[in-house]
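Revision sheet: structure tokens.
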Amino acid sequence: MKLYNKAAILGGGNIGQAIANGLVSSNLFPADKIYITKRRVDTIKSFGEKGFKLTHDNLAAVKDSEIIIVAVQPKQLDELLREISSEIKEDRHIVISVVSGASIKDITELLGKNIPVVRAMPNTAIAIGESMTCLCSDIKTNGAIKIAEEIFSSVGKTMIIEEELMVPATALCACGIAFFLRAIRAASQGGIEIGFHSEEAIFMAAQTAKGAASLLLNKEAHPESEIDKVTTPRGITISGLNQMEHNGFSSAMIKGIVTSAEKALRLYKVE
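Predicted:
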């Protein structure tokens, strides 16, 4: 990382803010080495108070940085890449895009440069160092994928995948944050109905969900093997699980992920 000591996050929306917070909390970059760009800088002035460099000038941010993280909406991508292309240098910059649906080929063609490009799909848990980030690159990245892996491994877990799987990764990991949060919310609502206060129920449901996920990650276990340990003949757990399945719990989750993936595939092209 010695040659890459400044980063520019082009797009100060939710994911851009989460990346900025994650990079600083991981001690990979100090705040004053990170640019965050946004058209209305006043909406992220709290980041300026933390020491981040805020600007609406994308060109200035690119010119003074080596790692360029593109975190705008798909409909804004083409205009942004054309805007910064004059300041992108093949021997100096790497570009990391978190824009859903935009391929490496799309990005390099719009930049008009043989520039190292990595696609990354993190989720908002990057802000607390718990992101699941999928990465891909082409064969011309000259080590850029390793740099991206170092960056995102400092703020969670990473997996290098084929580019054709990046859109499915968006649905499973990025959208998945919302899906699992909704499941926790539903569990807490059930907790309220059986007697707990709202704050108690949310805390209990969230910690239980964290424990369930940790069982799989720490033990490298299959979900069903852990489920078997808490389901007994004529027991209360299996009764609850079966009632959920009768009402389409697993089917709804599967359909939601597939639907999100299908829409993500069209997002950049449609916009």
